[in-house]
Amino acid sequence: MARKKRDKTRPRGGIGCLVADGECENAELSSSLIRTEIVPISRAFELISNISCNEHQHCVNNDDKSNKGIIDIQRQRRVRIVYPYPYTFATFAKARWVGRTVVDIYNDEFGSYPKSYYEGAIEAGRILVSGKKVTCNYLIKGGDELIHLVHRHEPAVGLADLSSDDPIRVVYENEKVLVIDKPATLPIHPCGGYNLNSLCEILSQWKPDDYGPGKLFTVHRLDRLTSGLVLLAKSSALAGTLGKCIMQRDGCEKIYLARVKGKFPLGLQNTVSEIHDSTNDTIHPWEFVCCPDRDENPEDEEMHQSKRPKRLIPPPCEYGEICDSYGKIWKGGMHIPFKSNEGKKQNAADEFSEAESYAGLGYWMTDAHGAVAQDASLHDLINQCDNKSTEEMLGRAIGSTSATPSTKETWLWLNFACPCRISSHKNGICEAGDLTGSKDGNYLQGIKPAQTLMSLLSYDASSDTSLVLAKPVTGRTHQIRLHLQKLGHPIANDHCYGGELWYGDDNGKTVCAKSREWLDKLDTGEGADGDVESQIIPNNSTNADTPATDSEVYHAAANRPREDGESIIDFIKKTCVWCARCRGVDGLRDATTLQNDAEVFQRTLMEYLVRSQGIWLHALQYSLKTQDASSLTYRTDLPNWAR
Questions:
Q1: Omega before residue 265 within 30° of 0, cis
Q2: Where does 234-343 show beta strands of DSSP type E?
Q3: Quick one: where's region Disordered (predicted)?
Q4: Residue closest to 492 by CA, chosen among 163, 267, 318, 241
Q5: pTM for the whole thing?
Q6: Do 292 and 305 form a contact (C-beta atoms < 8 A)?
Q7: Is 223 annotated as catalytic?
Q8: I need a surface site. Which of 27, 122, 224, 395 has the fewest CB within 10 A?
Q9: What's the burial of 371, exposed, middle or buried (CB within 10 Å: 0-12/13-18/19+)?
Q10: Which residue among 223, 494, 505, 523 is the active-site one?
Q11: pLDDT tens column, 603-631
């Protein structure tokens, strides 16, 4: 269906408010509507300590030398808070929306509010269609533009530590590129609940003349919870060139650091119980074993193996996919079928036919040059480590800093092939392993081959954690996190994939628990009797993750129409469900601007403490080969948890 040409004089969305009949309140107001505050994380710990002490409970001990990790965080971490601001969400109608009512679209497609809110917002003119007020039963047409006016709240994010006044640490900059060290918890682009608290927006506000709109172009992505290198180009052409280097796989080597549970890679031994097809007790079912060519005479096998140069032995997998060499000189491991042509048009008869391609699930060893190390074992990965510093071990494994490159020593790597897929696009959850269990018509859907190289740098017995190097050969979503979990060594504080929030940090756990306790008391009220059914605000709620309820909408916005002469901005502030949640169940109705801002600040800071502070995964080094055969290598400093 042809899309109607949009009226270019009407703003499509962003900071400020567009209302019906052409009334616009975002013109020249954007900067005045935004207020931010940067505070040390110790501010949140002080709030918790005061609350705990006032209630004669256990106080957080800021001088506890046994909890050095959390003390370091207190002294060094900074948090950025954006106060709520008016914002217009705008989108053109999707094809699947045509012919459905506007209230059903919002209720079914967007999950932040209950249906009662959307009904009231449509009637009040906070939800418009192509700039006009409509009824709840309005049927969406092709080309319609849906507009939603909100008082936008954002979660807090971490910034660079207190060693610098700059919000983001710059690793390298010239007239062509900007390379920065992204703090954990900070998304690169505006996404989900994050808008102004994103890397691109913070850079733009920090140095608008150098990094403002149209000045920087992203080259690649990095997960919000991951810290480390991010490359930004200063022209769209260079961004495209560098992006192709990364996408071409052999044009870019990415090296990550991770701190994982246990003594890597001995956790592999614990994965055997998960596999039911093991027929050989001496060989792990996931181990790819190099064996003589099947067509060789037995008496020639020894001579054949001695004459074959090691570096000429083809691997069992390339980019996670089973190679033709398997069955000739390799055995073991697992074969996982996948649709190699997924996303391409197929005949109906072939839609669910057996895939002709197979992803590998298994491991093998290689040396520093990528040659198959036939005789190496998992214990050899441990034996090559000694008591040298992390920097010295990095020099042996991947060379020294980019400024003074050195020859890498012989170093062993564990190659792990294991397919991945996104199991929930809505929640951003992925899975890895043998993903063919259901065997229904869609059991191959979304399976992608994946491969990562990993090696041990050091093991810390006191925390029972290992510092691991990881080099992803492919770039699947959450690939390193999934592969480490599958090997029995999840990233220690990655609670989404087998780790534990505040791993090994009792003081941090106390702070998190006290923050949650404070939030729950705010949500239930001082005189709460524990009746869950009568609660207005849900248990364990956060503004970022917990949708508003009918009760919250009723108490915050019911019978509160827009008054004569009241601006749309003041109206959405007055009826904001999230501001009401920040004030708590005992203060759901009115509050002065100062009171409301203070409550928003405190709740936003407390919610930051009950969420992940970032995981121990750090993009350490990127090496790119450009089309003119030149090489570019960038490396960040080690994060605190890797020193």
A1: yes
A2: 252-261, 288-290, 317-318, 321-322, 330-332, 334-338
A3: 526-548
A4: 267
A5: 0.87
A6: yes
A7: yes
A8: 27
A9: middle
A10: 223
A11: 999 999 999 989 999 999 999 887 665 78
